[in-house]
Amino acid sequence: MGMSSSDHYFSEQPTSATAPTTHHVDVRKLKLTLAGDRGVFNQGELDWGTRVLLENAAVPAGGVLLDLGCGGGAIAVALATLRPDATVWAVDINERALEVARRTVALNNVTNVRVVAASEVPADVRFDAIWSNPPIRVGKDELHRLLKDWLARLTPDGCADLVVHKNLGADSLTKWLTAEGHTVQRHSSKQGYRILHIT
To answer: Where do the domains of the chain lie, and which CATH numbers do they carry?
Structure first.
């Protein structure tokens, strides 16, 4: 039984019954515990795209990092563990995802993650790096608006790493980002996923 059209993981308020789960994941020499729930992307399992990003992107420098579209918080917690000196913001539109991400943060005992709705990030905050498994299925226009808004908040030396499957538009997204004035390098392609490194 699939999700109803009104209950995708990018819904603001999933209507499916809550069913909390916990998963133990080994990635990049990290042992993470991920919370999950229905109505939240991958329900706590570490999906291939996120794994490809975590295992292949260079650990970002700088003190303010962003997990955009954080889902259950896997990327945020990995960043916070890899960079305990940094502040990691974890942002999602889905209220249940934010609850799950907060559980993931607590399960891993990291204290440097701020899990918030997008509107709760102060306007003057700038990011040294963004890591994201972006919500491709929100549609091209919405995705472009989302990326435009957040990439504009990178510091002058900041960069972003996005993981996108080639069948879900990695190439067309690269063209759009380049047209927007960004430099895009395409890195490793594993299981069809590409990491787009954006400066």
So the answer is: 21-198 (3.40.50.150)
Q: What does the alpha-carbon distance between residue 154 and residue 158 come to, in Å, rounded to a whole number?
A: 5
DSSP string computed for 91-104: E-S-HHHHHHHHHH
Residue 3 has pLDDT above 50, yes or no: no
Report the pLDDT value the prediction gives residue 7, as an integer from 0 to 100: 42
User: In this structure, are residues 165 and 192 in contact, taking their beta carbons and an 8 Å threshold?
Assistant: yes
Q: What is the pTM of this model?
A: 0.86
Nearest to 192 by CA among 173, 160, 167: 167
Provide CB contacts within 8 A for 71, sequence distance 6+.
9, 40, 41, 42, 92, 94, 97, 100, 101, 133
Which residue matches tokens 């249940």?
A: 96
Average pLDDT over all residues of the chain: 87
Nearest to 40 by CA among 87, 119, 100, 114: 100
Amino acid letter, residue 130: I
Report the alpha-carbon distance of residue 151 to residue 155 in Å, rounded.
9
Give the separation between CA 195 and CA 186, rounded to whole angstroms.
6
State the Cα–Cα distance between residues 88 and 129, nearest whole angstrom: 10
Given a cut of 60, whether residue 1 has pLDDT beyond it is no
pLDDT of residue 18: 65
Tell me the DSSP string of 13-30: S--SPP--EEEEEEETTE
Report how far apart the first and last C-alpha atoms of the chain are (Å, whole number).
41
7/49 Cα distance (integer angstroms) = 22
